[in-house]
What we know:
The chain is 74% helix and 0% strand. With 126 residues, the protein is mostly helical.
Amino acid sequence: MHNMNDEQKGRLRERMITNKSFLQQIYQANRLQAKDLLSFADLKQLKLLIEICHYVATGVIPLAQDQYDEIVKLRKLSLIRKSLENKANIKVLLKSNRQQILQFLYKLCPVLKHLLWAILNRKLEK
């Protein structure tokens, strides 16, 4: 599991605060609305979303059991594990072009609200 140092937590928190409205909109959106929101998001917002999902997938940001169960029910657990738990895969994804990042996030649309639950309903540990 990847651990975050205080500096990394601080930078991530700042970026989340800066993009709070975007993250809340994604959290509250249905699948189709989420796709639209993603298509209008800038590259920094898309990369932030990938990083948050990575930290949730690796357990750095805790996920409630009921949210985990929903991800399993929506059959996205293997995609998340394959793509988001491995640090090398994340690096490749973050260096990808906007279209490739969007294609990946579109696959996650059904579960984005469950992955974002952890940051919008809990505070990161200091």
